[in-house]
Amino acid sequence: MQVAITCRHGTISQATHDYMSQKVEKLLNLFGRVTSIGITVDFTNGKSTVEILVDTEHRHDLVSVDTDNEATAAFDLALHKMEQQLRKYKEKIQDHRGPGLGELPVKSDDESAV
């Protein structure tokens, strides 16, 4: 899996870079079909905007964006949103079938005569 961290209008420290890489690697525990992750940090007007783009198999892209005064705080908020999106996407993939025959209600003869 590839992790790309880019900055616009500023730079981040190596410690912040390592922190983001380490935290984003944990997304693989939630969903193993992640092919690449892109993190963009944008410093404008005294605020930091962090965008996390996750590419999954079968061409599904998930995006989360958040803004805060500090880059790490914005990253943590965006990461939380991404975790929620990945959980929802994983549940959607796993629950793609309808109810089984054992779960369908059985019609009695009295109901069909009405």
Write the layout of secondary structure elements.
Blueprint: E1 2-8, H1 14-25, H2 27-30, E2 34-44, E3 47-56, E4 60-68, H3 71-94, H4 109-113
Parallel strand pairs: 1-2
Antiparallel strand pairs: 2-3, 3-4
Helix pairs in contact: 1-3
Low-confidence stretches: none
Beta-strand segment tally:
4
**Annotation field: number of helices:** 4
CATH first level of the domain at 1-71: which class? Alpha Beta
Kindly state the percentage of residues in helix.
25-40%
Q: Tell me the span between the first and last alpha carbons.
A: 60 Å
Average pLDDT: 86
Given the helix and strand composition, which structural class is it? alpha+beta
CATH superfamily of the domain at 1-71: Ribosome hibernation promotion factor-like
- What oligomeric state do these chains adopt? single chain
Strand order of the largest sheet: 1-2-3-4
Assigned CATH architecture of the domain at 1-71: 2-Layer Sandwich
SSE order in H/E notation?
EHHEEEHH
Estimate what percentage of residues fall within beta strands: 25-35%
Main sheet overview: 4 strands, mixed
- Tell me the overall shape: elongated
CATH topology of the domain at 1-71: Double Stranded RNA Binding Domain
